[in-house]
């Protein structure tokens, strides 16, 4: 069974499976330790950075997500794809703003 955040889905369904490949656990953001805790890469970001295309935002998104997760696993198996991905610019800006202490009013 292959998917992204699959552990969360299986938990909600109260199911277990012996053979699971969860792409949310395969890839990690490449970041400076000074930023602190960083969330797992989203499937959208993995598609952009590893596969080179943007996920379609359509009614059949679940089909596109299933195909994308299979392509990500194949990229690792067939091409030895790097499993560290760069942080998106939006995340860097957000994290930098949290590092700067806010001035107290009054």
Automatic annotation (TrEMBL):
Keyword vocabulary terms for this entry: Hydrolase, Nuclease, Nucleus
Region (Disordered): 87-106
GO CC annotations, alphabetized: nucleus
Family annotation (SUPFAM superfamilies): Ribonuclease H-like (SSF53098)
Comp. bias (Basic and acidic residues): 90-99
Molecular functions per Gene Ontology: hydrolase activity; nuclease activity
Superkingdom of source: Eukaryota
Entry's localization field: Nucleus
Homology family: Belongs to the REXO1/REXO3 family.
Protein name: Uncharacterized protein
